[in-house]
Structures are given as structure tokens and as C-alpha cells.
Amino acid sequence: MVHLYEGERTVKSGPRVQSLSGRPLLSIVIPMRDEAANLDPMFARLLPVLDRIGMASEIICIDDGSIDDTVARLKVLYRQHSQIRIVSFSRNFGKEVALAAGLRYARGDAVVLMDGDLQHPPELIEDFVAYWREGYPVVYGQRRPQAGRGLRRVLTRIFYRTFAVVAQTKLPEGACDFRLIDRRAVDALNSLTERTRFTKGLYTWIGFRQIGVLFDVEARKNGSSGWSNLGLWRFALDAITSFSMIPLRIWSYVGGIISLFALGYGLYCLLRESIYGTDVPAVSSLMIAVTFFAGVQLLSLGVIGEYLGRVFTEVKQRPLYLVAEEVGFDTGFDAHGE
Ligand code: UDP
Ligand code: MG
């Protein structure tokens, strides 16, 4: 039995909880930040899909510090659809953390992670469940390759390539958070207690047989995406530093190579002086060498700092998130679909 530290309490993730009727339970986890305008259209598409699938279900909505009326509207919807559960964070903790929370709250035999802005078509869940029933523990939505456009796409490609080399973990091209995960794999993810969570990497790290289902990303229904360029840069740094020590190790090799060069150059100078007499080197080349290597040293210190900062975050042992309110967790699982 795995014990997970989660906020103020210890959660036992032991024997799986099934719906009261003994039917397998499907959990849908949806992180939401200011998605009030998308709630109605999203549920209008999601609920019929769940009906067609015919499993008992729970829809876990993680309100990630929304400042619009997402929570108020969710509560209205909860009164109509009792399979909705609401977890409201005390503030915004970010989508990765919201997903981690959702995976811990979910009690399903299979858990589906899905965005709340309808960029992930709910209809695809039917295909996910079909593959799951065939025996695939992880089924992920895979964005259909689009014609290359924009700097971000190019940078994203460069990131994936770099990550594959540096972290020696090949992330499936276009795989997104939209996915179905079997209970066994969910427990595996929940047992990873790290605070800096690069979820895409963790999905690959846990292994299990995985299969992708191609789909076209739809345009965001309402509102705008929360990713700034700085946010993406931080995300990339988190990804690489949490999956690889190469940026740390590389400096000993760089240092070694530079020392060898310096040694060789020193010997060369010694030889030249003994043959041609004393020679004063140009000041500018000295300046260039000094500033260049000062730069290299600061850069390597910076890399150490990046890791040290993350070690600091880990040792503080702060909870990953804080919950302000939970709604709907005291009801049975088979309220829906009976
Ligand atoms: N989201 C969240 N917390 C955040 C930012 C986003 O829970 O701090 C949710 C958001 O409500 C949506 C999903 O994560 O359901 C994807 O967010 P977004 O559309 O902004 O990202 P993108 O689709 O551009 O990756
Ligand atoms: Mg989106």
C-alpha cells in the first residue's frame, strides 16, 4: 500500500474503490482556470459521451484559482449532475499541479485527463475507453501534425529534440495531456512525490504499454491560453532539469578540455620562450581569455543554481497544492448511469 502525502492529510491509495454497483468507474479530470464561459458547451458534449460509454462516472473539476464565476457555475451544474465533483484550490497553482491533484482525487479504474476549453474533443474518450478495454493501460491523444507555422512551433520542435538527447527520454511526437490512464498507472504517477512536475515526461517515465489516438486540436472555445513566452521558457527549464543531470555534468568535461588546452598552450609558450627569449603577449588576447572564462564560470554557476533552487524546493516539503473547498465527494459513485 502506498502512502501519499497530500496537503494536510495522508491518503492511502490501496485497494481500488469501485462504484457501489461493482461496475468499473471512469473518472474524468478537468483542470479549470477561468473557464466559466466554456462550462456549458463542454458539459453539453461530455455528458452524452459518458452516457454512450455506459460506465459509472465521476467528473472531477479542479478549479485552479479561477477569478471568474467558474466555481459558482460548477455548483449550479453539480445540482443537476451529481457525478460532478469540485476541488477548489486556495489560489492558482498551475495546470500541472491541477492534474496531479485530479489524479489523486480520482477513484476510477480508468482516469481521463482533459482540458476544459474544448480543445480536447470529448468524443475521443469513446476511442480511449475502447483501447483501454482492449488492454492498453495508457491511451493518449496525439495532435495530428500540422503544417509548420510560427516561431513557437519551431522552438517546440527544438525543445523536443533537445529533451530527447539530454534526458534520454523520447516523448511521443504531439502527445498531449489529453489521455486515459489505467488505475495501475495512476497509482504509479501518484507515487512520484516530486514537486517540480514535468507531467509529459512522467507519463513516459512510468512506462506501461501506451497507444496514441490521432485528433485535430480545435480552437479554444472562449478566453485565451495562459501560456506566456516566459512561462514556456520556465516550463522547458523545469522539464530538462527534472529529467537530466547532463547540464550539471557537462561542466566537468568543459573544464577538463579547457585545462588541457591551457596546459598545451603553457608548454608551447615555455618552449617558445626558451628558444626565442621572453615575449610579452598582447593585452587584448589576455582580456578576451579572462572575460570569456569568467563568462563560462558564471554560466556553470548558474546551472548549478538552477538545480540547487529545485533541490531547495524539494527539501522544503511544501504541499503541492492547498484545497479551499471540496464538493461532491461524499456522494456514491453510481449516482450516474444507473
Ligand atoms: N489551466 C489551469 N491552470 C492554469 C492554466 C490553465 O488549470 O494555470 C487549465 C485551463 O483552464 C485549461 C487547461 O488547463 O482547461 C489548458 O490551459 P490553456 O488552454 O491555457 O493551455 P493550452 O491549451 O494553450 O496548452
Ligand atoms: Mg487550451
Automatic annotation (TrEMBL):
Its main location: membrane. The keyword Glycosyltransferase applies. GO terms for molecular function: glycosyltransferase activity. The keyword Membrane applies. It holds the Pfam family Glycos_transf_2. It is a multi-pass membrane protein. Residues 27-187 form the Glycosyltransferase 2-like domain. GO terms for cellular component: plasma membrane. Keywords: Glycosyltransferase, Membrane, Transferase, Transmembrane, Transmembrane helix. The chain crosses the membrane at residues 250-268, 288-308. InterPro entries: Glyco_trans_2-like, Glycosyltransferase_2, Nucleotide-diphossugar_trans. It is found in: Membrane. PANTHER family: PROPHAGE BACTOPRENOL GLUCOSYL TRANSFERASE HOMOLOG (PTHR48090:SF1), UNDECAPRENYL-PHOSPHATE 4-DEOXY-4-FORMAMIDO-L-ARABINOSE TRANSFERASE-RELATED (PTHR48090). This is Glycosyltransferase family 2 protein. It comes from Defluviicoccus vanus.
